[in-house]
Amino acid sequence: MDSQAEGPEGRLLRQGQSEGEGEEFQRNINRESEDVDGIESQSRPLLTPVETHTTINSDNEDGEEPKDGVKWWKRPSIIILLPPFVLYAMALGAAAVPRVNMVFALVCQDYLNRKEREATNGDFTPIRLVLGADNPECEIPEIGARAATFTLYMNIITGILSAITSPRLGQYSDRMGRRMFLILGSFGACLCEVTLILCLKYPEYFSHWFLLLASAFEGIVGAFTLILALVHSYASDCTSFAKRSSAFSLFHGFLFLGIAIGPAIGGFALEKTDDIAVVFYGVIGVHVVFISYILLILPESLSKEKMELANEKFAEERRKSAGSVSWLRSAMGVVNVFKPLNVLWPEEGGNLTKIRTNMILLAAIDFVMFGVGFGSITVILLYSKVEFHWTTKFASYFTSFVNASRVIGLFVILPLLTRFFRKKPRPGDPVGGCDNLDTLIIRGALSMEVLGTLFFVVARDSPVTDNSKFLDKTFAV
């Protein structure tokens, strides 16, 4: 009993015969304790109360030089990751509208070429399009429907491949480091942009069906899905558990900010150059800068000890499953896209029934909202082009306005609601999931989403559409 009550410090004094040996032994204990804390912080349930602790890579809150002598710019930190992430988000937003309109133009060209081949006795007058420009001849419902269907094919390919590969690549990053897979995601997106430029510049050799290949590039490497997941993993690696939610919110805020600024930059470039390819060249340049920054500047967030520990754990799991599971089930487990959903069914912690119910319901709501939100963007842009004859430049500015309203909702409206209407918990109160304010915010956001969508249905001019989209995105955050 006495030896247990002494704790590690008492045992240290008994084992260290000299002061130097005692200090060395204490450093070993601290290193092992930090490794255990870092691993345990990843396995704790998200909604259960935990004590604040500091991981290996947490920032020095006192602003002092770290004891190991490593300079601040060589230590992993979310501040170092923010600049390339904002650039990536801006490139993502800048290419969104030009990509949709380029798909529209390529599908239109294919449609007109087919009509010309099928025409007899001069029933059809050939039309030569200028790819990359706004072609009023294409703004008819038939071509809009074909373009929407084709973008559906692109999204299905990207989504299915990304759902299969992203979880696996994320697991590999636990054993091999985050930087390599951040580069991989950006490289796949860069290949996608190169394919788009080839289709735009050489349509006689690369038809619009090659855009499905570009979608496959994005899906195989995860692209946006993988990069966003790895950014959150990087933040988890280099922040304390107590500051992790703040880090996630910071990255989400800058993601929306970059997506809000990007389309405006793309629209400005179109206004000055009148060439849609310039936007794609700029996006490729951003990916080159992003990859160079990750290679040369960004420090790895996982220590060698953590990666070795993850590799040992993986090897141990493989050894256990080798004797107890058939080769067929083992192979099926590799491509099991539903395995990551285990996080929605925690096995430890208190009040498990309510936590599991909330996790599944919130995941289902997020699934629907994310799918509708991202899926509707393309349809809305195509609809606006056919119905209101919007140019690429105007649609880019409109997209910036829409995403700016999202930023207002995230950085202004939501904090004000939380500040003035949320009740502060008393010491000792149990964690009960979301409170009444959270529920009201979710219900209000869903109601505004429905109301904004209804405005799109009845809108017959641009001002109503602008106001409906502002209402939609401001309250649907």
From TrEMBL:
Alphabetical GO CC annotations of the entry are: membrane
GO molecular function (one): transmembrane transporter activity
Q: Where is this region: Disordered?
A: 1-68
The record's InterPro entries line, in alphabetical order, gives: MFS, MFS_trans_sf, Sugar_transporter_CS
Biased composition regions of type Polar residues, renumbered to the chain: 40-58
How does this protein sit in the membrane? Answer: Multi-pass membrane protein
In terms of Pfam families, this protein maps to: MFS_1
The residues the entry assigns to the signal sequence are none
Q: What is its main location?
A: membrane
State the compartments where it is located: Membrane
Q: Does the keyword Transmembrane apply?
A: yes
**Which UniProt keywords are given for this protein, alphabetically ordered?**
Membrane, Transmembrane, Transmembrane helix
Chain segments annotated as transmembrane: 77-97, 181-203, 209-235, 247-270, 276-298, 360-383, 395-417
Q: Where is the composition biased (Basic and acidic residues)?
A: 24-33
Return the protein name.
Answer: Major facilitator superfamily (MFS) profile domain-containing protein
Species the sequence originates in: Orbilia oligospora
Q: What is the organism lineage in this UniProt record?
A: Eukaryota, Fungi, Dikarya, Ascomycota, Pezizomycotina
